[in-house]
């Protein structure tokens, strides 16, 4: 409870100072009232632009809430944002990638008021100048420019209730005086992330079922400090520091496991029970520093941008995994097997980027640049396995652990160069062409003294990639009402560092995940055709081809232990064939009834084609039954976000949001349909905003995956993360609302951060 209490003290101590600046807030509200006649949603060159400063839904929302209501954007887990037809969405601020890891970024977006935002740009197919992977898109948040000196900030507290109660708070401040600007944020949260699982797998003769709960307590604290100094009229120097810490102690898994056996006629032969009781302590730290220099070369916007960065990531994970037997009283008091895991990971990264942009008078822009990343990861995994019961069921005296140590070190160097040419040929036609050339050199080395065979397999794993990644886009404005554009890009996806660490994470004794140091980079080719009418209605056609897809593959095998036939299920991280995703979506973004109703609505279909087979764990060489996924699926996708203004003074708002995703084939099997109805009520009062949000009202956002193989093997997963919750929040904006925010600087290490946890 220390983190929320600390920030609560800051929250209330700032109120006396904050009350002094109400006149500026009134002026800002008047300006917003005038700009409501602006076009809110439009297509520009290679991106969609959502002018939220001209929208009535901004005030009192958080940035994350606003992003969820942005056309083409969606979230199914209230943590990650997706762009229609894309895998992931990367967050940029003022054209610069956010200098935060994934967990702190979510907290930042959920605790930052949306009033600071001028517009949101959705870049569905990023150009060669962007360091993105796979089919990732970009969400660029453009902040309002506030010109005068002074201090401003905001404070926010919220409390949520699902299965458990959670709380969060944040404090942000901006200061500007002459040439110096400082921006800082402190945020924290305390919660227990609950999950309920039903896991089933097996054949027609042997079936496994595990049911139970996972509770993951978390305490988080993080923040950033950005210092920006204007050296001359044309040059700036900035230093940014970001920090995030997470502590998850006493995380528990409690599952009841049942093994049933049947004869050839389907008659029940036997039923055996065990209980999985796991306990885990984990903590991680993410610290980064970035030095930026920017030189403006002329009045047209030409500039030189240099970055140097250092990133340090540490994660320590210690788990105690126990398989409990029924015992004399059938109370599962007897420990049959214990696996103790010590899984640390340390990542150090040094990075640098150079970007040169030359703008010419004939609407021609030339851009070139490069980047360098040097990363070292150290994974010193230790496993201790204790067997307390012999095959006859008798206790084993003086148990000695079976040791399995693996010290895996991974070194990676990435060199990248890009060049782009952008030309506006006329008021109607513009185009952009470019390419990236990337060189990746990596070396993984493993030391496994307990298993020399495995040590030899993992001793040296070298990878060398040389990739030329072209990009093309054009935009044609047929007339004032009609616009059409086309984009093509090729990208690669490198495996995350945790995916390469050859470690098993046990869910139950017969259910685990296995990472893989042999995973290689995958390739992606993206095409997109967009048509827009009256800047309100749009049609998007998208096609993505993935080769050597990096994913988890569910593999099964039967084995005997203590005279009992069992079925083991392993989720193996590896490259798995090819995949195609095709989608067609129509949508609109409009206001109705004199702006009492603001709505955006999308409906479309997505067609997935999967083609992959696997029967061997590439890390251990263990052979399983063949797993095949060559299934096609076509699914319906619907999303609508609506804000209803309830009074003339624009102080009461009702939000009604809904999404539906039809069943679709993914790598793990058939993902059944998901949907969620979210409601919100918001009250604006001067500089205060009070809000109540109820998410997943119908409790329909529950993941179910089912897979049947021709061999008779099947696999079923049901995962309830208790996404139905109610959140009450209070936000207060204080100080001089005309303060200009410090420049947001893209760190040279941002591309690496996305590959940590």
From TrEMBL:
Signal peptide positions on this chain: 1-18
Top-level taxonomic group: Bacteria
Gene3D superfamilies: TonB-dependent receptor, beta-barrel domain, TonB-dependent receptor, plug domain
Keyword hit for Membrane: yes
Subcellular location: Cell outer membrane
One GO cellular component term: cell outer membrane
Keyword set includes Electron transport: no
Residue ranges annotated for the Outer membrane protein beta-barrel domain, each copy included: 296-732
Keywords, sorted A to Z: Cell outer membrane, Membrane, Receptor, Signal
Pfam families, per the entry: OMP_b-brl_3
The name this protein goes by in its record: Outer membrane receptor protein involved in Fe transport
Native source organism of the sequence: Chryseobacterium defluvii
């Amino acid at each position: 409870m220390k983190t929320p209490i600390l920030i609560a003290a800051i929250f209330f101590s700032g109120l006396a100072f904050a009350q002094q600046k109400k006149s500026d807030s009134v002026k800002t509200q008047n300006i917003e009232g005038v700009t409501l006649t602006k076009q809110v949603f439009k297509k520009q060159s290679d991106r969609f632009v959502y002018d939220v400063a001209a929208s009535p839904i901004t005030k009192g929302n958080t940035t994350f809430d606003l992003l969820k209501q942005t056309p083409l954007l969606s979230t199914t887990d209230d943590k990650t944002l997706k762009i229609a037809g894309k895998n992931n969405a990367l967050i940029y601020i003022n054209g610069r990638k956010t200098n935060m890891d994934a967990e702190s970024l979510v907290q930042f977006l959920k605790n930052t008021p949306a009033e600071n935002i001028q517009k949101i740009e959705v870049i569905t197919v990023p150009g060669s100048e962007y360091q993105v992977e796979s089919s990732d898109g970009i969400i660029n948040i453009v902040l309002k420019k506030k010109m005068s000196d002074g201090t401003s900030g905001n404070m926010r507290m919220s409390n949520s209730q699902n299965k458990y109660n959670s709380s969060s708070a944040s404090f942000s401040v901006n200061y500007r005086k002459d040439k110096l600007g400082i921006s800082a944020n402190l945020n924290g949260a305390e919660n227990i992330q609950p999950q309920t699982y039903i896991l089933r797998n097996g054949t027609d003769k042997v079936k496994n079922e595990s049911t139970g709960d996972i509770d993951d307590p978390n305490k988080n604290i993080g923040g950033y400090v950005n210092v920006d100094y204007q050296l001359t009229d044309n040059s700036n120097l900035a230093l940014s520091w970001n920090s995030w810490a997470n502590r998850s102690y006493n995380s528990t898994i409690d599952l009841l496991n049942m093994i049933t056996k049947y004869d050839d006629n389907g008659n029940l032969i036997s039923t055996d029970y065990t209980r999985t009781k796991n306990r885990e302590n984990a903590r991680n730290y993410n610290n980064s520093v970035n030095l930026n220099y920017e030189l403006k070369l002329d009045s047209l916007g030409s500039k030189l941008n240099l970055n140097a960065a250092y990133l340090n990531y540490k994660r320590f994970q210690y788990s105690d995994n126990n398989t409990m037997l029924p015992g004399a009283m059938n109370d599962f008091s007897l420990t049959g097997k214990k696996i103790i895991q010590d899984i640390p990971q340390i990542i150090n990264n040094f990075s640098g980027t150079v970007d040169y942009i030359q703008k010419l008078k004939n609407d021609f822009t030339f851009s070139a640049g490069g980047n360098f990343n040097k990363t070292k990861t150290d994974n010193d995994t230790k496993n201790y396995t204790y067997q307390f019961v012999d095959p006859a069921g008798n206790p084993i005296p003086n148990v000695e652990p079976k040791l399995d140590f693996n010290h895996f070190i991974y070194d990676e160097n990435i060199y990248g160069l890009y060049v782009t040419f952008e030309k506006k040929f006329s008021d109607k036609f513009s185009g952009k062409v470019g390419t990236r050339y990337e060189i990746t050199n990596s070396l993984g080395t493993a030391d496994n003294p307990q298993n020399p065979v495995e040590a030899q397999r993992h001793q040296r794993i070298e990878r060398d990639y040389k990739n030329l990644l072209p990009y093309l886009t054009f935009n044609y404005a047929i007339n004032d009402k009609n616009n059409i554009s086309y984009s093509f890009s090729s990208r690669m996806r490198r495996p995350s560092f945790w995916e390469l660490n050859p470690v098993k994470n046990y869910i139950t004794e017969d259910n685990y995940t296995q990472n893989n140091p042999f995973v290689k980079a995958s390739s992606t080719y993206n095409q997109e055709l967009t048509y827009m009418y009256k800047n309100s209605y749009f049609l998007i056609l998208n096609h993505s081809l993935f080769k050597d897809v990096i994913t988890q593959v569910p593999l099964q095998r039967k084995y005997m232990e203590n005279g009992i036939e069992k079925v083991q299920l392993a989720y193996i991280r590896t490259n798995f064939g090819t995949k195609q995703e095709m989608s067609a979506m129509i949508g609109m973004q409009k206001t109705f009834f004199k702006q009492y109703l603001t709505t955006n609505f999308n409906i479309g279909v997505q067609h997935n084609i999967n083609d992959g087979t696997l029967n061997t764990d590439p890390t251990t060489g263990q052979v399983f039954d063949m797993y095949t996924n060559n299934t096609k699926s076509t699914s319906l996708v619907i999303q609508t976000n609506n804000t209803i203004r309830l009074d003339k003074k624009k102080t009461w708002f009702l939000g009604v949001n809904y999404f539906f995703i039809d069943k679709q084939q993914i790598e793990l099997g058939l993902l059944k349909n998901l949907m969620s109805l979210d409601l919100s009520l918001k009250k604006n009062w001067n500089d205060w905003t009070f809000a109540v949000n109820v998410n997943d009202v119908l409790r329909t956002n529950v993941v179910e995956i089912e897979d049947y193989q021709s061999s008779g093997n099947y696999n079923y997963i049901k995962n309830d993360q208790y996404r139905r919750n109610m959140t009450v929040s209070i936000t207060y904006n204080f100080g001089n609302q005309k303060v200009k925010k410090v420049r947001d600087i893209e760190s040279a290490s941002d591309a690496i951060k996305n590959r940590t946890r």
